Amino acid sequence: MSLILAHVLRTPLRALAALAITSALVVGACGGDEPEQAAQPIVTQAAAAEAQQTAPIDAAQQDQAEAPPAVSEADSEAPAADEQQAQVEPTDQAQVQQGSAPTTDSPQQQSEQETVASDPNRDILLEGEQFASSIDPGDTERQFRFEAAAGAWLRIHVDGKGGMDPIATLLGPDGVEIAVNDDQSSTNRDSLIIAQVPTAGLQYIRVQPYDANSIGDFIIQVQNWTVGADDDNAVTTLGSSVDGRLNLPDDVDVFEFQLASDQQVFILVDGDLGVDVYAQVFDPDGDLLQVDDDGGHGLDAEMYFVANATGLWRVEVWPAANKEEQRQLLGAYRISIRAGLPTSAINEAVASDLAGVALTFLQALRDADTATILALAGPEALTIWGWDDAGDVGRDIQKIQSIDLGGEILQSIAYGDVLNSARGRVYFQMDETDWMRFELIQLAGRWLVDDWAHSMGPPS
Predict the structure, then answer these.
(1) Is 74 strand, coil or helix?
(2) For the chain, how long is the longest CA-to-CA vector?
(3) Among 190-199, 226-235, 270-279, 430-439, where is mean pLDDT lowest?
(4) Residue 170: DSSP 8-state
(5) What is d(CA 390, CA 386) in angstroms, rounded to the nearest whole number?
(6) Cα–Cα distance between 413 and 436 in angstroms, integer?
């Protein structure tokens, strides 16, 4: 996000809360860059129907025939108590502190309800289909199957609902584990696998709850992950934008551009919704000048600097690396290379609105007010955390509150965005070196919080 010079707000912070949104606005999280479908590596509708007729789904028969070995007690053992996340009772989404919201579902939720399939007697998954299932008390897992060609790349997503925390495992026809994922990211407890199938035939997906408190409903989807030629590398120019795509976890895209010494430069790598990018810039001698992960809006990267040499400069874009066993959030992005540094002023009324919404959201985080958190969460926050309802928010309250949310707010500074007037940033100073940073986005005339984090201070 290209920040512009802020207003230091003099309005009492208590009064700012009254400027915040007073009715719940739930923005459904949507996927970022949807991959194109490859040519039939996964079972088709007709093939599924035939399979249902020729190979009825019978648990006993499947155990004796083609199913992979069952999980041992050691494999399915729940994590130690100190690793388990406390479950918070969800609040009614319509009961927001400062008002009430309509109880109708958002268009995203309505669309999902219309397109999600559900059949307790079927365990065959169709390519691209969203399939609803659940793990009930006493159950240890659910298992699904589908056909795939050798060498096919797959994207498998398991979206836990109402606090359900899934672990997904992909197994080949021989029952050998291909990939496993617990958490999609450090904040999102849904499961995401992007993996290549080594052997053609009937593949299996095993879904297990993280612990006894993590059972419930989920939606599973298997998609072909199309990996095109890595032709995103390009020579570009100052003042231009280029589209790229991170295809695989080890993908690296390189962009080169000419600069003169003392040239002021701003670089923004803006990923599609939910795409997590990491960027680094090198000078003409190949020396690393600067790196950034989430310095921009949400998961975006941004860097600004004064060139120290004339010549061909280079920016590398990577998928941001998560901790072990988590999956990079791949997809499309746009890199913009602009001349100049952010210096324009922001409107005081906008700054006040931004700070009011950020203050209300911060208080909701402190109070574990799941309804208000959900109502004021922007699409990036919903995607980053994997929130579909207040139950999902309640699942993550302990994790949120384990990060010190600070005490008394000493001052507030709000920034706008040179490239996008519907984005903003607010800093709250807690003490001499501790600041809370909030990224906001404006949708349908309302400001929502897309991300938040600690900071050593606002940009100088």
Answers:
(1) helix
(2) 73
(3) 226-235
(4) E
(5) 11
(6) 10
Tokens of 235: 């020579």
Residue type, 103: T
Query: What was the pLDDT predicted at 30?
Result: 34
| Average of per-residue pLDDT values in the chain | 75
pLDDT at 145 over 90: yes
DSSP-derived letter for residue 185 is S
Helix, strand or coil for residue 157?
strand
| Residues 99, 91: Cα–Cα separation, whole Å | 14
pLDDT given at position 183: 83
* Paired tokens of 50: 């035939």
For every residue of 12-63, DSSP letters joined together read -HHHHHTTS--S--------SSPPPP-SS-S--HHHHHHHHHHS---HHHHH
Spatial contact of 363 and 81, defined as CB atoms under 8 Å apart: no
For residue 130, which amino acid is it? Answer: Q
pLDDT tens digits along 80-128: 333 333 333 333 333 323 333 333 343 344 444 458 898 888 999 999 9
40: its two tokens? 């039939």
Q: Which residue has the higher pLDDT, 320 or 92?
A: 320
Confidence of residue 328 (pLDDT cuts 50, 70, 90): low
pTM assigned to the model = 0.59
Query: Residue 54: which residues within 8 A CB-CB, separation 6 or more?
Result: none
The CA–CA distances, whole Å, from 168 to 1, 106, 121, 173, 417 equal 34, 28, 20, 16, 39
| Count of CB atoms situated within 10 Å of the CB of 198 | 12
Measure the CA dihedral 177/178/183/184, to 10°: -160
